[in-house]
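User: I'm writing a short methods note and want a consistent example. For Alpha-1,4 glucan phosphorylase, I'll paste the sequence; you return only the structure tokens, no commentary, since I'll be parsing the reply automatically.
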Amino acid sequence: MGRTLQNTMINLGLQNACDEAVYQLGLDMEELEEIEEDAGLGNGGLGRLAACFLDSMATLGLAAYGYGIRYEYGIFNQKIRDGWQVEEADDWLRHGNPWEKARPEYMLPVHFYGRVEHSATGAKWIDTQVVLALPYDTPVPGYMNNTVNTMRLWSARAPNDFNLRDFNVGDYIQAVLDRNLAENISRVLYPNDNFFEGKELRLKQEYFVVAATLQDIIRRFKASKFGSTDTVRTVFDSFPDQVAIQLNDTHPAMAIPELMRIFVDIEKLPWDKAWDLTKRTFAYTNHTVLPEALERWPVDLVEKLLPRHLQIIYEINQRHLDHIASLFPDDVDRLRRMSLIEEGGTKRINMAHLCIVGSHAVNGVAKIHSEIVKTQVFEDFAELEPEKFQNKTNGITPRRWLLLCNPGLAELIAEKIGEDYVRDLSQLTKLHEFVDDDLFIREVAKVKQENKVKFALYLEKEYKVKINPSSMFDVHVKRIHEYKRQLMNCLHIITMYNRIRRDPAKLFVPRTVIIGGKAAPGYHMAKMIIKLINAVAQVVNNDPMVGSKLKVIFLENYRVSLAEKVIPATDLSEQISTAGTEASGTGNMKFMLNGALTIGTMDGANVEMAEEAGEENLFIFGMRVEDVTELDKKGYNAQLYYDRLPELKQAIDQIKSGFFSPKEPNLFNDVVNMLFHHDRFKVFADYEAYVKCQEKVSELYLNSKAWTKKVIRNIAAAGKFSSDRTIKEYARDIWHVEPSDLKIPPPNEPRDAAQDKTPNGTAA
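Assistant:
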């Protein structure tokens, strides 16, 4: 979620008043804002997407709740020591959190372990361990519409009789100390992005948030007028019409068997009725196609922790497979491929398959990603129910990612096209009229230059490196992962360095290359990539032959509040994942909206950005998905590129020989070995095209006016990438609610009783 103060002032229309009031107290609002800790309760794009969605849902007047876990420790703080990443705990609650309100009156029990007893009345889950879920509510204000929604985060608490009720004869002290065991559930965020680690505590977290949330939703449903009918059998008939639950990846997939358990075991609904209601309630968003990221929970772990849920999953699977067998008799391989249970070695539950079978809608997050989901990853399911599969291209909130972080640009746009674009970003197309307006071109360039000077001062303060603010700010910020190919950027840096040294007199367009992002603590290769970047920076930044032509900076502890500083100052946005690997990306959109040009592959939302702005207004290079598939067919041989491309050979040889690590010549052996022998993401295959494309970037940068015209065309085409548009599509195509742009009256104005009706019955 990042910081809350400035976002709240903007959405309430109070920023100027507050700035002025604070100034009159002899204080500086910006200094105050810097004191607030980021709420970093997610890993990367997926968590930030949810935050943008909450802002858009409130702004569109949807009755929506965001549910999650109130981690005591969020994503770790990254320190760079001697070029290596070191993790520190993110004790973000140390000084308290003024934005949250504990709601102990809504505390709920969550059960674990135990066993299942079957009787004539049905299944009973007994002898369980209980953990309490304590909700904390954070307000989510809409933009200037007097709407405030709720983000409800659950914290784990041990019940007061924990460890004291059963067989416990005497060790009272130990029993109280053991309360930590229960409360550890909400202690810390698992720091993996796009990687599945099958740990018991992680499964506990996933079920904890699901069980508490579903009880909360059902309590609210029963308390509303929709829930009140006489016969028990039909109480839940309207449930899917009143409740929509969107599964943000498979992490909350246990919600499907949990809702079935509530309907069948507790509310005593017949299976078929319960299954119909469940399917109509849930929809699933897929966020990745990387096989190592897909959740596959071992059956024996689920059996130990959630025995009743395993039985329900088996029953769902049996009925699912019976259905497929009736459509495709004798096709045993299809049954194996489509089963929720993977046999062979340890039996595992494929959570994506569970989500697809248990949902009425499945979507990818960019056109190209949704195609890959349909034709490759889940092709058997799409063949069975093509109408279930949709696309919902991701978006970003223009409140945080333009108004808040780039007020100079936001104001400049408002002068030209008015202020309405903030709620309807498609109005940015009106900027096309000004693409040849010399004054506007100069003003856009001036805002960018001011942002760069401000960020250069920040860098000099934090990193003690002198930055040339007129150099091109070339920025690559995102989680460190092989598929995102920070290594390819690194090879380009080395290539530029070698060119400067080879011919120091030759014209070179000065660059400040900024790379930032966190590596999962257990991801060895990602940590080596960080070390390599820092080692290269050390050499480049201290070579007198290079001077101010090339500077390399690794941005420490990349997070939302740092993104808000670097993105408005960026000239060139690096979006260079191997085609077919980045589901969408959202950083790409933030840079586009803030007046950077993009160098990128035809991957994720880059494809649609090129479609909107015109491919000639982005720097597109490299293999397309088809080329990657083709190369896989014939076999990728890294050696061929190394032998054919002298500059690539030189760069690799320098890494290999210890040029960047003279004290430890073999330091980067693992990296080089990976690039030659098991590079799934084919860095060498795109290197040549990337370097050539970068030459075009430098050439255009020399012509400030032509560059800025492309910038304006990009900003004018960024409207599609508002999360408001994304949420309108979810609302209409999946949740079946109508967004409203009604501004409800403020609380100080009396409301007409006739108007006191909610425009949307459904809560998402």
